[in-house]
Design a protein that fits this description.
Layout lengths: L3 E5 L5 H14 L10 H9 L6 E7 L2 E13 L3 E11 L8 H16 L3 E3 L7 H9 L17 H9 L1
Parallel strand pairs: 4-5
Antiparallel strand pairs: 1-2, 2-3, 3-4
């Protein structure tokens, strides 16, 4: 693809990163779910001890996609990378940006020698499920395993009792 570039994000990209995270939340039918701010992203991703990394796709100098990931450790297999979000803007889907970001993420995993990469996909997101299946990814556990989480307020409420 001409005028297509894949690169690591830096702190000057946080406005575009946040824009893409919000676009993904809208697509996933959670338009008000993104609470993270540009300041949070700068502090948490580009400070002394980064908590996440991000790979960006650019087209004609416009950021059109991202792969957002974090290191994890599995008690079963050791080092893993968790792909938190993979998104390409609506208008640029189907042009190869998704596979380029995905491959860049997988090359990063290979370079680090991790034993597994993992992520979640919504059961109604058939295009994403098909995309992952076509790459050989194993999609299982949708009926056996459930995601369990507590937000800040629930943690505080539980601990105060």
């Amino acid at each position: 693809m001409e005028n297509h570039k894949i690169r690591k994000a830096n702190s000057s990209d946080v406005k575009d990163i946040l824009r893409l995270l919000i676009e993904l939340a809208v697509y996933e039918k959670e338009p008000n779910a993104v609470k993270v701010t540009e300041s949070d992203l700068i502090r948490d991703g580009f400070g002394q001890s980064p908590k996440f990394e991000c790979i960006l796709a650019e087209f004609n100098s416009e950021i059109v996609g991202l792969a957002f990931y974090t290191p994890r450790y599995s008690t079963w297999v050791g080092d893993t990378l968790h792909l938190e979000d993979l998104i390409v803007t609506q208008k640029m889907r189907g042009k190869g940006f998704g596979i380029s970001l995905y491959k860049s993420f997988l090359y990063e995993a290979k370079k680090r020698g991790v034993n597994r990469v993992e992520w979640s996909v919504l059961d109604w997101n058939k295009p994403a499920i098909d995309f992952y299946k076509n790459t050989g990814a194993i999609i299982d556990g949708l009926d056996q395993w459930k995601i369990v989480r507590m937000d800040k307020e629930i943690i505080e409420k539980f601990l105060s009792n």
